[in-house]
From TrEMBL:
This is Ligase-associated DNA damage response exonuclease. Keywords: Exonuclease, Hydrolase, Ligase, Nuclease. One of its GO terms (molecular function) is exonuclease activity. InterPro entries: MBL, RibonucZ/Hydroxyglut_hydro, Xnuc_lig_assoc. Residues 336-348 have a biased composition (Basic and acidic residues). SUPFAM superfamilies: Metallo-hydrolase/oxidoreductase (SSF56281).
């Protein structure tokens, strides 16, 4: 069924978030609302203050870890629930563990809000599933042709080789990645035969939440009791906010690296003052976005955070009814965050 051209959209954007007026439900709202469907646990999509949360079962422990005592209920992928005659269901987004797309259907019209998503199977998250729809709301974090990812196996081989070389030179390898999603993806495929794997407390705390769902290598949390000599030659997983903190002094001598899609730009590595950049993203590259949108069979595309203007113009040239919408989502910019609260407790 084609999208209704002259009627109010099934999903609209207001000052609180993405709103389904017929159901009275918001999707990943950025201001407190009565009922919110949450796609995943990253802070820009999962915020404190809503009266009721609905999300995938695997995302519940992540949200409770981050947000505390909340009123949250879980559903399975493909499970339909109805609110005021509007049918909702969650489907794999492949972004991080427990991440979802939201399918919304009313009177035969189908919209899909993708949240954040990626098409490569990372071996942790349930792989992305294209959903047929009339209208598709997509992120555009890396919506430029310049972004083209290498296979995960190749990137992880490069990371393990980097670690092995540093070990042979008597150095510690400090690898920065966002504490939810990226850090666990790195951990899953680090080679323990090279040496010991150490973690910053923020990453260890989040990994502990996810361990019941994923088989990870053994890790050692870095505390005051862990000696510098123990760490030497190992690899340390840390959030970007630990870079430049007093916490990292224990790693000297060390080589530093960051895993992020932004490492595709040489300037990003220089700005972050790291020795090495590994291009590894939990979001789609340019071709991944295009392939995903084609697979939905949609007519209308609404482009949100990232290179939304450029990507929207490209889609319009391809014949889509494409436009942009303002949100408060950050995409992988969150991975470059320099907030210090993650390291505060490690330094006190």
């Amino acid at each position: 069924m084609p999208v209704r051209k002259n009627k109010k959209p099934l999903l609209c954007f207001d000052e609180k978030g993405i709103f389904c007026e017929q159901a009275g439900v918001y999707l990943d709202p950025w201001k407190p609302v009565d009922k919110a469907i949450i796609t995943h646990g990253h802070a820009d999509h999962s915020r404190w203050g809503h009266h009721q949360y609905i999300t995938h079962h695997d995302n519940i422990p992540i949200m409770e870890h981050r947000l505390g005592d909340i009123n949250v209920s879980g559903v399975n992928y493909g499970e339909t629930f109805t609110v005021n005659n509007v049918k909702f269901s969650l489907h794999p987004a492949g972004h991080i563990i427990g991440s979802s797309q939201v399918r919304v259907e009313y009177k035969g019209e189908v919209w899909v809000f993708s949240g954040d998503y990626k098409t490569e199977d990372d071996g942790i998250a349930v792989p992305y599933e294209p959903i047929r729809c009339d209208a598709f709301i997509t992120e555009c974090t890396f919506g430029l042709p310049a972004f083209k990812w290498q296979p995960q196996a190749q990137v992880m081989e490069e990371i393990n080789n980097w670690w092995r070389q540093n070990r042979d030179e008597g150095k510690t390898s400090v690898l920065f990645g966002y504490s939810l999603g990226k850090a666990q993806r790195l951990l899953k495929f680090l080679d323990p035969s090279i040496g010991r794997i150490f973690t910053h407390g923020a990453i260890e705390n989040m990994t502990d939440v996810i361990r019941p769902m994923v088989d990870f290598p053994e890790t050692t949390r870095i505390t005051r009791e862990v000696k510098k000599e123990e760490i030497k030659g190992g690899v340390v997983l840390a959030p970007p906010s630990a870079h430049g903190s007093t916490w990292i002094r224990k790693m000297v001598p060390y080589e530093s690296a960051m895993a992020s899609g932004w490492m595709a730009f040489r300037g990003a590595r220089r700005r972050r003052a790291v020795d090495r950049g590994f291009v590894l993203s939990d979001h789609c590259d340019w071709q991944g976005l295009i392939t995903s949108i084609k697979a939905t069979g949609c007519e209308r595309v609404i482009c949100t955070h990232g290179y939304s203007e450029i990507f929207s113009r490209f889609l319009a040239e391809q014949g889509y009814d494409a436009r942009t919408a303002e949100t408060q989502y950050e995409g992988e910019l969150a991975e470059m965050d320099t907030k210090t609260e993650e390291v505060k407790n490690e330094e006190d």
